[in-house]
Amino acid sequence: MGEVREAALVVRLSAAERAAWHAAARAAGWGKTAGWVRSVVAAAAAGRGGAAPAPSTPASPAVDREVLRELAQIGSNVNQLARAVNVAARGGQRLDLEAAELEALRMEVSRLTAAVTAARTTSSTGSQG
Q1: CB count, 10 Å around CB of 25?
Q2: Alpha-carbon torsion 106, 111, 112, 118, what sign?
């Protein structure tokens, strides 16, 4: 397990600087800009001229924003259902959920799971060429 980081360093950037750092981190193969910045600063502090080593973990594959939006909406709906069931149970009530509604929800979750899997597969095979 990695070292526990307890201290924070705040660096104020302009929007253009932030975008440039983010782009540089991605171009260097880093999934997180913070990791890239930490590496660059550590390399400079060690006298290696600020050359950051390659990340130890690959960058996250890009996922279609529309798929993420839909998945977030479904997650919100599932949370609302769970809350309704929990509130009813605390009040001694029982909710009768329609089997068709539950099946529709299950089908939508399956559809989005397949879409996310396909996006991940497409992203990882597209970046290998």
Answers
A1: 22
A2: positive
For 25: left if phi > 0, alpha if psi spans -120 to 50, otherwise beta; the answer is alpha
Residue 85: partners with Cβ closer than 8 Å, 6 or more residues away: 95, 97
- With tokens 């996250």, the residue in question is 60
Closest by CA to 71, choosing from 120, 124, 127, is 120
Residue-wise pLDDT for 67-115, tens only, equals 778 888 888 888 887 788 778 778 877 766 666 777 787 788 888 778 7
Q: What's the pLDDT tens digit per position in 43-56? A: 888 877 656 666 66
Q: Where are the beta strands (DSSP E) in the chain?
A: none
Is the Cβ–Cβ distance between 29 and 55 less than 8 Å? yes
